[in-house]
């Protein structure tokens, strides 16, 4: 007999979906058309004891209220900004996430975005593919860009959120000869990196500002006009945290008005919508939220979700409990 009714909120990793369906009774929220989803939840509410969500569709208050038998939300993500944690606490619903196993891949991507933005790797690739190298000559000579090509090695790197991912980014940046500083609420005594309690001071002293903090009510729009102006026209913003850390209209205006040098983004405020203006800019690198999308990390995240559900069913301690 299958042990648990599990609601999967949207398509994720195929291995995870197969294993969930093999081990449990699986309900796929995206299968009914959007207008029938409330009815689908109502019909199956008595059987759904677990929700597996991700950074696209988590477990919001309305969903939680619609599922009276819900016992656990096992998120296929480390960030829990799409889960109503307060509501889960109030109702005694357990919550787990997938920390650590994704740290290296996200930190790798932050460095990749920094180098791709500064060295204009994507633009150069497009230049070659379009035949322009052959027809128009060297990319460098035809470049109309802000300040040309810029080295990553040796830059002053500022990290917003020196947690698991931020620390892994810092280690990598150090290997490139960068000086590392950071902003977070807590000073980390075990590091030699300079701590700025004020994010504007960090931005003013950084050439590359990398966002890797969690999205909360406090950090929403932590990157506002003042921070962008402090980073300045030679500065580059890299975001592997969450889109809503940045006040997107302010940020887009700064890029258009050359008040900011460039940006490399894996995340956006209203995914999958990306401001049209960004798509037309040469000094930005845009990725469709792929920070953890490697075979190895997806498998490890899936195993953590499955392990947490198994522990819950067996009434054992959860592997990565948050609530
Ligand atoms: P973590 O270890 O919990 O680190 C979070 C960091 O955010 C901590 O250093 C924390 O420092 C800082 N922070 C929290 N509130 C803050 C505030 N008000 N002001 C300044 N800093 C604050 O989490 P992690 O595993 O490194 O993951 C970080 C985030 O990366 C996740 O929450 C997620 O949103 C994002 N992420 C993105 C991808 C992707 O695909 N692009 C993948 C995985 C994760 P203090 O508590 O000291 O302030």
Write out key terms for the chains shown.
globular; NAD binding; seven-stranded parallel beta sheet; 38% helix; binds NADP nicotinamide-adenine-dinucleotide phosphate; 12 strands; 323 residues; Rossmann fold
Q: Please, could you describe this protein's structure?
A:
One of its GO terms (cellular component) is cytosol. It holds the Pfam family 2-Hacid_dh. Residues 11-322 form the D-isomer specific 2-hydroxyacid dehydrogenase catalytic domain. Belongs to the D-isomer specific 2-hydroxyacid dehydrogenase family. Residues 111-291 form the D-isomer specific 2-hydroxyacid dehydrogenase NAD-binding domain. The protein is built from 14 helices and twelve strands. It has a seven-stranded parallel β-sheet with strand order 8-7-6-9-10-11-12. Strands 2-1-3-4-5 form a five-stranded parallel β-sheet, sandwiched between helices. It has two domains: 5-101 and 295-313, Rossmann fold (3-Layer(aba) Sandwich); 103-286, Rossmann fold (3-Layer(aba) Sandwich). It has helices spanning 14-23, 37-44, 61-66, 85-91, 103-119, 121-129, 132-136, 139-142, 164-175, 199-204, 225-231, 248-256, 276-279, 295-313; strands at residues 5-8, 25-28, 48-52, 72-74, 94-96, 156-160, 179-183, 194-195, 208-211, 236-239, 262-265, 284-286. α1 (14-23) runs parallel beside α14 and α5 packs across α9 (164-175). With 323 residues, the protein is an alpha/beta fold. 41% of the residues are buried. The chain binds NADP nicotinamide-adenine-dinucleotide phosphate.
């Amino acid at each position: 007999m299958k042990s648990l009714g599990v609601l999967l909120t949207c398509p994720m990793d195929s291995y995870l979906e197969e294993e969930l369906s093999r081990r449990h009774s699986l309900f796929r929220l995206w299968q009914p058309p959007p207008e029938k989803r409330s009815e689908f939840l109502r019909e199956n509410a008595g059987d759904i004891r677990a929700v597996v969500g991700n950074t696209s569709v988590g477990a919001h208050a309305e969903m939680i209220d619609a599922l009276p038998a819900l016992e656990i939300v096992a998120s296929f993500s480390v960030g829990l900004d799409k889960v109503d944690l307060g509501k889960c606490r109030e109702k005694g619903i357990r919550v787990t996430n997938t920390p650590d196993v994704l740290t290296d891949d996200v930190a790798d991507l932050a460095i990749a975005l920094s180098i791709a933005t500064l060295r204009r790797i994507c633009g150069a690739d497009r230049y070659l593919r379009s035949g322009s190298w052959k027809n128009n000559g060297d990319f460098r000579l035809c470049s109309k860009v802000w300040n040309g090509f810029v080295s990553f090695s040796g830059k002053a790197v500022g990290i917003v959120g020196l947690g698991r991912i931020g620390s892994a980014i810092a280690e990598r940046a150090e290997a490139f000869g960068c000086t590392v500083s950071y902003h977070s609420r807590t000073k980390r005594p075990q590091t030699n990196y300079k701590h700025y309690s004020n994010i504007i001071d960090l931005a003013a002293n950084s050439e590359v500002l990398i966002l890797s903090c969690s999205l909360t009510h406090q950090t929403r729009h932590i990157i506002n006009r003042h921070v962008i102006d402090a980073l300045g026209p030679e500065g580059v913003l890299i975001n592997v945290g969450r889109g809503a850390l940045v006040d997107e209209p302010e940020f887009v205006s700064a890029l258009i008005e050359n008040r900011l040098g460039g940006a490399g983004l894996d995340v956006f405020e209203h995914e999958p919508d990306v401001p049209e203006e960004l798509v037309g800019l040469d000094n930005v690198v845009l990725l469709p939220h792929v920070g953890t999308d490697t075979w190895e990390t997806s498998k490890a995240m899936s195993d953590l979700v499955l392990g947490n559900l198994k522990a819950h069913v067996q009434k054992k301690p959860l592997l990565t409990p948050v609530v």
